[in-house]
Amino acid sequence: MTAVRHDLTCRELASFAADYLDGTLAPTERTRFDEHVAACPDCATYLRTYADTIRLAKDAHADDPAPADVPEDLVRAILQARPRPPRSS
Questions:
Q1: pLDDT tens-place string over residues 8-66
Q2: What per-residue confidence (pLDDT) applies to 74?
């Protein structure tokens, strides 16, 4: 039995961008994603601007403290529950 390879379309790439950037895309899908981005300048640009938009949105609120009436233990629990990007070697 031969595995059928399904090339990633631009539309599929857009729907997987968040998972790709946060490192939760399965290795097989990540390989297909990387291959598509390498061959498609429009998607490479899209991915770069998507990542920039996420970074800018996070930076815009990075210094906003939690409201004074939010319990500190709740803030800590939320911060600990956030997914962390994989560390690069």
A1: 889 988 998 999 999 999 999 999 999 999 999 999 999 999 999 988 888 777 666 77
A2: 86
DSSP code at position 64: P
Structure pTM? 0.61
Within a 10 A sphere around the Cβ of 75, how many other Cβ atoms? 13
Would you tell me how many other CB atoms lie within 10 Å of the CB of residue 29?
A: 15
**Could you give the CA distance from residue 54 to residue 2 in angstroms, rounded to a whole number?**
39
Biggest alpha carbon–alpha carbon distance for the chain: 61
Give one word for 44, left, alpha or beta, with left for phi > 0 and alpha for psi -120 to 50. Answer: alpha
Q: Which of 61, 66, 64, 62 is nearest to 77 (CA)?
A: 66
Closest by Cα among 54, 70, 71 to 62 = 54
Q: Helix (H, G, I), strand (E, B), or coil: what is residue 87?
A: coil
